Amino acid sequence: MKTILITGASRGIGAATALLAARNGYAVAVNYQKNHKAANEVVNQILSMGGEAIAIQADVSKEDEILHLFSVIDSRFGNLHCLVNNAGILEHQMKLVDMDYARLQRMFKANILGSFLCCKEAIKRMSTKLGGKGGTIVNVSSIASRTGAPFEYIDYAATKGALDSLTIGLSKEVADEGIRVNAVRPAFIYTDIHADGGEPDRINRLKEGIPLKRGGLTEEVAEAILWLASEKSSYSTGIFIDVTGGK
Ligand code: NAP
């Protein structure tokens, strides 16, 4: 059974990806930061389908907690085939001129450092040059890396720009180590993240401007993530799948 680690899988896109991964036969490591109950519900749904899953608490903005996360995977599963860097935060809409240093640190640590460090730990376990059997990494970026999200959250957009650069560079760096690195760039997906941005109803405000005239579902993003994580995308590395309703 292949093992997949999905960071931030207690709700939203991560939870949908965890459930789809289980349906596709993966043993799932469900990482979460705070919401123990929601993470356990995802695990219980997978167990009730006859799948295999565990919930692992770890704040991906902290290196020691990332090391703990991977050590639990080592001892429980003994291998890792796929990493989905999905955990991400958004803070209240404002102009850059009003953002303070503490906010920028939180944003860059959770969204950039977390993904970089998780990639590092995954490569140590997957690289064929380091005794591993290869694997796949999928970064969950955002359309914001293309738009820059002016007047809303340039800090968040910039972290997604960093994930895009990470995807391009790392895909080439580990291509001959049996590891493929790709990304999905969602937008306008119905999840709780928009409430964190201070506008829970943001998608409904914007949906007339989306070519498909609706927001997206977490399951629609999960399909793209799982395709990139699987052998079905075996000749693709360093690519981006936009799941944005045509925006
Ligand atoms: P969400 O519903 O807010 O869920 C975020 C998840 O990340 C939760 O499971 C949360 O865990 C976890 N998390 C947050 N900070 C963490 C940390 N420091 N360490 C570990 N886990 C952490 O978000 P979502 O909308 O599903 O977004 C998932 C990803 O898609 C993010 O990277 C986001 O930027 C990206 N994205 C979303 C959209 C959209 O429209 N929704 C669009 C573009 C990109 P707890 O609840 O346990 O704290």
Automatic annotation (TrEMBL):
Q: Which UniProt keywords apply?
A: Oxidoreductase
Q: Which CDD domains match?
A: SDR_c (cd05233)
Entry-linked Gene3D superfamilies: NAD(P)-binding Rossmann-like Domain
Q: Name one Pfam family in it.
A: adh_short_C2
Known PROSITE patterns for this protein?
ADH_SHORT (PS00061)
**NCBIfam families to which the protein is assigned, alphabetical:** PRK06123.1
By sequence similarity, the record places it as follows: Belongs to the short-chain dehydrogenases/reductases (SDR) family.
- Name-wise, this protein is SDR family oxidoreductase
